[in-house]
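Project standup — Tuesday

K.O.: blocked on the structure for the chain from last sprint. Re-posting the sequence here as requested.
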Amino acid sequence: MNKFEKKYGIKEDEKVKAYHRSRIMFCIYQNRLYVADRNLPYSHLVWFEKEGWMSPDNDDFINKIVRGIVDDIGDIYFYIGYDFRINNDVEKIFLAHLSTLVDKLKLNPNARIFGGAIKSEQGKKWPPIRKYGKIKDNLK
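H.V.: unblocked you, prediction finished:
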């Protein structure tokens, strides 16, 4: 088990890799939206390390930036930290970049938005902490 897997508490087996491939990762770094390539078999942590934004020995980045996914049906999930939490600041940052994310990925305005995640079964979508309704209801 690598250092990232230990921090997440998840072993990146084939089931987890298949889940990773099924969604699109994004993050908001230095007030800019970044979207990862599609069909990647790894987590945000690996993506961030490949970008040079963090390393297993210097990983506080994960606690400072809003990140999330668009799942295989087009719903959006966002959060921060190893514990997938949300707060008012995280919500404000995410919502400020929502229209850019929607435009960039051509998301359906009727797709839903969820904040945070409650760790559950490995390789499956985790339940959200909060529901925000449809994309169209959250655009400014």
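K.O.: great, moving the ticket to review. The mean pLDDT is 89. The longest helix spans residues 88-105.
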